[in-house]
Design goal:
elongated, mainly beta, 2 domains, 2 helices, about 250 residues, 5-stranded antiparallel β-sheet
Length: about 250
């Protein structure tokens, strides 16, 4: 929390006391004054932060006003430093998140999925490249072909915010994203075991609320064309617009 003291925005600790009779806190509370609250960690649940402003005169008046806060975070992560793991640390100490904000670095590097692992044929009976079929499943339905894709993690915190609109967007048309049911068993079917995550649509109900059709499913990114692009997870709600992004570079064949 911050307060303007002597013209400077100053970080303060709680409880903050304005008492002209206290030699350790001689500042006089100016009415009204403005305090600035900064979110540093996402809430565990909606409205889980309570704050109280208390006014007290010895032996005369003791009254208080309470209000609640929620710290919201939208988070999209990938293995941006290409070390084989996704670092969950989103602070400046994290090994992946700091790269996602750097325009001069490639971010997650993945290949274009132009091979024929799925064993499918086009209408003329010729082999069909995996990227030309919007399904991650082999031709016999017995295998989920994820070897040429890379995982990512998408989250909106705290969970259960039905009033927010969460969207996924992509630049350049370089990739698509699949959601895969971790409990899927063959034969694999769309809707039950996998789903193509739509760009630009509100994903909240299906993907981010407990009980949604694809809630808790794992996300995988498939490269479709060479180039550099950005995946962005956006949050709009309660007067807030938040975004988190991952940088992608698609190179050659998977």
């Amino acid at each position: 929390m911050y307060e303007v003291i002597e013209g400077q925005l100053t970080r303060i600790t709680l409880p903050r006391v304005w008492d002209p009779n206290d030699p350790d806190n001689p500042e006089v509370f100016s009415n009204p004054t403005t305090l600035y609250v900064e979110g540093v960690q996402p809430s565990v649940m909606l409205r889980d932060i309570w704050m109280r402003l208390r006014y007290r005169l010895p032996d005369y008046v003791d009254c208080a006003k309470f209000f609640k806060l929620t710290v919201v975070e939208v988070d999209l992560d990938a293995d941006s430093n290409n070390d084989g793991t996704i670092d969950p640390d989103d602070s400046s100490n994290g090994t992946d998140d700091i790269i996602e904000a750097d325009d001069d670095r490639p971010g997650k590097i993945l290949g274009v999925n132009d091979d024929y692992d799925e064993g499918k044929l086009d209408a003329a009976g010729s082999p069909l490249a995996d990227l030309d079929d919007a399904s991650p499943v082999s031709s016999d339905g017995a295998a989920m072909m994820l070897d040429d894709m890379v995982p990512c993690i998408a989250a909106s915190l705290p969970p259960g915010d039905a009033d927010a609109a969460i969207t996924l967007t992509s630049t350049g048309g370089l990739v698509r994203v699949f959601a895969i049911n971790p409990a899927a068993v063959p034969p694999y079917n769309q809707g039950e075991d996998w789903q193509l995550v739509p760009f630009g649509a509100n994903l909240t109900g299906d993907y981010f609320l407990d009980g949604g059709a694809y809630y808790g499913w794992r996300w995988w990114i498939e490269g479709l064309a060479p180039g550099a692009g950005v995946l962005t997870l956006g949050y709009q709600g309660h007067g807030l617009t938040l975004e988190d992004e991952v940088r992608l570079t698609c190179t050659g064949s998977a």
